[in-house]
Specification:
about 500 residues, alpha+beta, four-stranded antiparallel β-sheet, 12 helices, about 50% helix, rod-shaped
């Protein structure tokens, strides 16, 4: 069902949340079910209405045939007297009159049930009155309906004469005009057994549509409640996963809801505990490695001092210094990207302003435009990430520009230098540990290629992303993109 809806609707119309998609699928399913049910029901109801109209028309035709035969059996001069007696008695089913010719009427047109009833009436009358020379049948509305040759309409007649035809709500009148003999036309007006039979031909009435709308609203209301009840635990799981990814310690998920969610919550809690134990074990491991590796390095340095040859002693010193630097770099890569501190509100103007002033005091050309934005982050970790990017920019660019901006719900911190830039093919692996390009070794011989890697680890720990690219008009640009859910304008 969801795939069919996806094909029918543009991608930007589909909601992104599971709750929204479930509600959409349920709404579309209910609408399609109601539409199919209404189509089938309407077709059956129209067929039943046609059968009922034909049956009623046949009954009326037999009654009209009896009336016609009765008046045919009377001498012409007796017919008006009989009609007058019928009127004095309060009328009959038929409003009867004798005219010199057929009266023109505005007949109903384009009515399926009316046409079916007329066809049945004509066939039955022809069968019952095979010798009738002329016969005219039609349905017409009672308003301004002519009754006699003298222009009298149905509304002009006394109420006692028309009580069986004139209803509170107008209904179509059946007119049967039969030529009894030359110059004498029998005028019969009556209603169908169901006066409002035409309305049964349209099953989708206003009341029916209102009922359908109310039932749809009730189903959707229940659907929204059920979907929210089902997806609420998933939202709690998502929030817990996001908080844990930022280094926070979320409360344990309640083991309530469906069996699948309870199983998922238990699996998530077990995973969180295993990761927490892993992080603690890793911390202890690297503390041990730091102690165990630096101690023999120091002993080797002391022993190298006992060597008599200066050249050999210097080579030993260089190798041990390089080994010591590699150990420090490896430990720094792990520890600096996992700073244990609480997140707090950080005013970016104050943080970046201090860093810019320090760089300017050291003689560097650095500019920054205040943004009046604050961010909820780990202050030391964020400062270290920005500091690494700024130090790289100061080493490789003639001047540096810092900027903070809001973009599509996120906050972007941009560090841009005006240096030679980076080859495009090297951008993909530039943030890997120990990766250094040729011009980097030339300009910064003491570097180890860990600054970008550490900055990326800190940004990822905040749920953000580090984007590296060459600026459009020259130089290199590093952009820290942090999710808007964590940051807010001051």
């Amino acid at each position: 069902m969801l795939e069919r809806v996806r094909r029918w609707l543009p991608s930007h119309v589909l909601p992104y949340s599971l709750q929204g998609r479930l509600i959409l699928v349920m709404a579309v399913g209910v609408l399609l079910t109601q539409l199919a049910g209404n189509v089938i029901w309407a077709a059956q109801r129209r067929a039943e209405a046609r059968d009922e109209a034909r049956t009623a028309a046949q009954h009326v035709a037999h009654s009209a045939s009896s009336a016609v035969r009765f008046f045919l059996s009377l001498p012409p001069n007796y017919r008006p007297l009989i009609i007058q007696q019928f009127r004095e008695m309060g009328g009959t089913r038929f409003l009867v009159n004798i005219n010199r010719g057929p009266l023109p009427v505005r007949a109903l047109a384009g009515q399926e049930l009316a046409d079916a009833a007329l066809a049945q009436l004509r066939a039955t009358l022809k069968e019952d009155l095979p010798n009738t020379p002329d016969l005219r049948i039609a349905f017409a509305w009672p308003e301004r309906l002519p009754v006699g040759d003298d222009g009298v309409t149905l509304a002009d007649l006394p109420e006692t004469w028309t009580q069986h035809i004139m209803l509170a709500r107008p209904a179509p009148v059946l007119l049967i005009q039969v030529e009894l003999d030359p110059g004498h036309w029998l005028y019969l007006a009556t209603l169908m057994p169901n006066p409002y039979f035409l309305e049964s031909g349209n099953p989708l009435t206003r009341d029916r549509l209102l009922l359908q709308a109310l039932s749809l609203a009730a189903v959707l209301l229940v659907t929204v409640g059920v979907v929210r009840w089902i997806t609420r635990p998933l939202a709690a799981l998502s929030e817990a996963a996001t908080a844990f990814g930022r280094g926070e310690n979320p409360p344990a998920l309640p083991e309530a809801g469906s069996r699948e969610f309870v199983t998922t919550a238990r699996a998530f809690e077990d995973m969180r505990k295993r990761i927490q134990r892993y992080m603690e074990d890793r911390e202890r491991l690297f503390v041990s490695i730091s102690h165990d590796l630096r101690t023999p390095i120091m002993r080797l340095k002391l022993r190298s001092e006992l060597l008599d040859e200066d050249e050999l002693r210097n080579e030993f010193h260089d190798d041990l210094d390089e080994l010591d630097m590699m150990v420090k770099g490896a430990l720094q890569t792990v520890k600096d990207s996992d700073i244990h501190e609480n997140a707090t509100e950080v005013r970016l103007d104050a943080l970046l302003g201090r860093m810019v002033r320090d760089a300017q005091l050291a003689g560097h050309a650095v500019t920054y435009t205040p943004s009046n934005l604050t961010v909820t982050a780990k202050p030391l970790a964020l400062k270290r990430a920005i500091g690494n990017l700024l130090n790289n920019a100061l080493h490789y660019g003639e001047r540096v520009e810092l900027a903070v901006r809001e973009a599509t719900g996120n906050i972007e911190i941009v560090v841009r230098d005006h240096g030679p830039g980076v080859p495009e093919q090297a951008l993909a692996e530039l943030a890997q540990p120990y990766v250094r390009l040729e011009h980097g070794r030339t300009r910064n011989g003491s570097g180890m290629g860990l600054g970008l890697s550490i900055a990326r680890g800190i940004v990822h720990a905040h749920g953000g992303e580090l984007l590296l690219a060459n600026a459009a008009d020259g130089g290199f640009q590093a952009t820290i993109v942090l999710p808007g859910g964590v940051f807010s304008a001051a």
